[in-house]
TrEMBL record:
Native source species: Sphingobium algorifonticola
UniProt keywords, alphabetically: DNA recombination, DNA replication, Endonuclease, Exonuclease, Hydrolase, Nuclease
GO MF annotation terms: 3'-5' exonuclease activity; endonuclease activity
Assembly behavior: Heterodimer of SbcC and SbcD.
Pfam families noted in UniProt: Metallophos
Family to which the UniProt record says this protein belongs: Belongs to the SbcD family.
Biological processes per GO annotation: DNA recombination; DNA replication
Entry function: SbcCD cleaves DNA hairpin structures. These structures can inhibit DNA replication and are intermediates in certain DNA recombination reactions. The complex acts as a 3'->5' double strand exonuclease that can open hairpins. It also has a 5' single-strand endonuclease activity.
UniProt xrefs under InterPro entries: Calcineurin-like_PHP, DNA_Repair-Maintenance_Comp, Metallo-depent_PP-like, Mre11_N, SbcD
Zinc keyword on record: no
Superkingdom of the organism of origin: Bacteria
Lineage: Bacteria, Pseudomonadati, Pseudomonadota, Alphaproteobacteria, Sphingomonadales
Chain ranges of the Calcineurin-like phosphoesterase domain: 1-89
Protein name: Nuclease SbcCD subunit D
Length: 323
């Protein structure tokens, strides 16, 4: 079985006030091309599809068009969960766009975590889709007042999901979580609203799964085991992600459950980068760029409103000045 794993699109997000609509469109076209080329059996979107619970109409339209295109152009099953930036109700309602084929779209929690079961040449594969939820919602859903942190939420979801996975069946878990040992980025929002709350979950919580498709962290990376993986965000959302190769994860699941992971690189419409130097020297260099640029000025004396000195052809109006 072949799986395409992506997450953390953050549709509707801006970068320091700059719209990323064109950048998102550029990336989603590439992901659709990957689906057409790689012919995955399953397409997973592991949360934070939108940047906020009330996204702009352009973001909703972009997701709708993507799902409609996948459904029309391929036989891939669609698996999608809500992340901590999403409205659970909205993601759940958008599941209708995945109708017409195998799909599991999970917004709100469900006390009975039944998987989507898809057969391949080697037998059935169970896919458990575990949406993000805050602790109070999980306490109500699972009727468990002991749930006090994001790790407790995940453990409750996994306990419910395991009941429906037959012994010996290959098992894929889709979750939106912060796993111990993973590298973070500046652009990620905490998963808990409790000051001092325990945000992370141990990789050991996913014992028994053959592949864990994670969302939440923006850097593509395995954590704990090679089969527990963040696909990462498809775009850079902060200057600390400068030079980071964004990608989609392509997974081939063997008959014995062994997962082979390939990172398929994405090419951004614009690079996120930093230039350094004295203001007049940078202007004299005459660089013209449409990239998202942070300018670090090294002048000996402070520059007053350096933006006024930048000709429009430099397009440095899309930048942050660090003095």
């Amino acid at each position: 079985m072949r799986i395409l794993h992506t997450s953390d699109w953050h549709l509707g997000r801006q970068f320091h006030g700059l719209s990323l609509d064109d950048d998102h469109e550029h990336i989603l076209v590439q992901i659709l091309a990957m689906i057409d080329d790689a012919r995955p059996d399953v397409v997973i979107i592991a949360g934070d599809i939108f940047d906020r619970a009330n996204p702009p109409q352009s973001a909703i339209t972009r997701l709708s068009q993507f799902l409609t295109t996948v459904r029309a152009a391929s036989d891939a099953a669609i698996v999608m969960i809500a992340g901590n930036h999403d409205s659970a109700a909205q993601i759940g309602a958008m599941g209708v766009l995945a109708d017409g084929g195998d799909a599991i779209v999970r917004g709100p929690l469900d006390e009975d975590e039944r998987p989507l079961v898809i057969p391949d040449d080697h037998g059935p594969v169970a896919i458990s889709a575990l949406p993000f939820a805050f602790e109070y919602a999980a306490r109500l859903c699972f009727e468990d007042d002991a749930i006090a942190c994001p790790a407790d939420v995940i453990r409750a979801q996994l306990a419910s999901a395991r009941k429906h996975v037959a012994e010996g069946m290959r098992w894929i878990v889709v979750a939106h979580a912060f796993v111990d040992g993973a590298a973070t980025s500046e652009s990620e929002r905490p998963l808990t609203r409790m000051v001092g709350g325990i945000e992370t979950v141990s990789a050991g919580a996913f014992e028994g799964a053959h592949y864990v498709a994670l969302g939440h962290l923006h850097r593509p990376q395995p954590v704990g085991q090679h089969y527990i993986r963040y696909s990462g965000a498809p775009l850079a959302f902060g200057f600390d992600e400068e030079g980071q190769q964004k990608s989609v994860s392509l997974i081939d699941l063997a008959a014995d459950g062994t997962a082979t992971v390939t990172e398929v690189a994405l090419k951004p419409l614009r690079q996120v980068r930093t230039i350094r130097g004295k203001l007049l020297e940078l202007l004299a260099a005459g660089e013209v760029s449409n990239d998202i640029v942070r300018v670090v000025l090294t002048d000996d004396t402070p520059q007053i409103d350096p933006m006024k000195s930048v000709p429009r052809q430099h397009q440095w109006h899309r930048f942050e000045v660090v003095i």
